[in-house]
Structures are given as structure tokens and as C-alpha cells.
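--- STAGE predict ---
source: upstream dedup step, 1 unique chain passed
mode: sequence only
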Amino acid sequence: MDPKQFAFVSIAAHELRTPLTSIKGYLSVLTNEYGSKMSPDEANLVKGIQTATDELYSLVENLLSVSRVERGALSIKTEALDYLNLVSETVNEFKTRANQKGISLELVPIKDKIQNLSVDKVRIKEVLSNLLSNALFYTPANGMVRVYVSLRGNDVITSVADNGPGIAPEVLPHLFSEFFRAGSIGKGMVNDPNPRGAGLGLFICKSIVDMHKGKIWVESKLGKGSVFSYTLPLFV
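--- STAGE serialize ---
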């Protein structure tokens, strides 16, 4: 995109975020106040609206983030925090979505003793949330998603592993490119003729991890699943 197109996208995304935030708030009130009074059909309709709203809100946030990346305005504000607690909280936030799809989502017990890390809490949570969202989307019902955190030298490695359809070898080198979607090269992933999203999530993840002086990569085999991993240095 040229600068004018990015400016338009940024303005449009900002304008969309406000009403979407209101819709999310109204849905939360509706669910909390009247959820127990809804019939199963009504509850499913509300759940569908919530899912669609969350996906649209995520797209808007991604558009705003990529606009900041292109303008060199994406910044991080690091603070020392309990990284393992951040990972645990983020995984727990996705438990409901996993249960609704019949997927087993677990944070594997951590053997290494990891001290506090200096990271941007909001941005790193965005990275992990993006990887979890993708894993749950592509993993079939009764599948598994596992999150691992380990220490290797001076790096903390976080991995999100699934037993979904896997990713074709010709797609792997392009996954972290801007506006790339798996379907851009042939079929990309098994049972994925219509890839989701706008091809921004993984590009943003890489930008955030790069700003933390870390690395992000993927290992995958068709029919076996995928493992997305990123590192964060103990000392920056």
C-alpha cells in the first residue's frame, strides 16, 4: 500500500473501533443480565454475534497495528513482570473458546525456573493471543493445543503447538509477510480453500517480537500440525 492508502485504512479502522467497542459492551451486558433466561437457540445466536464481533474487532486492531508499523510509530514500553503468569492468564482467556469447539487447550507444566522478563505486556500478549487464536481456528474438534515455555541459554522460548491440518512447505517461507494468506499459494493448508483474516496477524507478531530483539518461526508438517515459537531475551 502507498502512504495515502495506509492513511485511509488507519482512519477507517479508528472510526470502526468505537462502535465495535460499544457493541462488545452491549453484548457483554446482554449475556450477563439475560444469558440465563435465553433459550438454546437464542444463546447460540448471541454467541455467533459475539464471535463475529470479536473477529471484526481483531481485524480492526490488526489494521491499526500494521499502520503503525508502516509509519514507524509502533513502539513498545517494557516493564519487568512475571512472564509465566502472563502466559497462564492469556491461555485461560482462551479456554472458553477451546471448550466450545471441543479442543483440549493446556499450558504444559514448566520445568525451568524463569525470572521476571522486561517486555511490553500488551504487545507480547497480542503475539501469544494471535498464535492461540490461529491454533484454535485450524485445529479440528477433539483436537489439542499445547503451550510450552522453556529456557534455552539467555532466551525464553514460548511455543504454541496444535495437531491441526499443518501447513504446506511452499507456504512456510511467506507466513510472516505482510498481507500474506495461506491460500495465496495454492491451497496452503489442508481444508483451507478460503483462508481467514487479512494476512496481518503474523506480520504484526514478527514486528513485535523483532522489537523485543527476539525471533519467531514455525515448524509444520501437513496432516501432523504446526508449532509456532518465539523467543524473548532474558537481558535486553
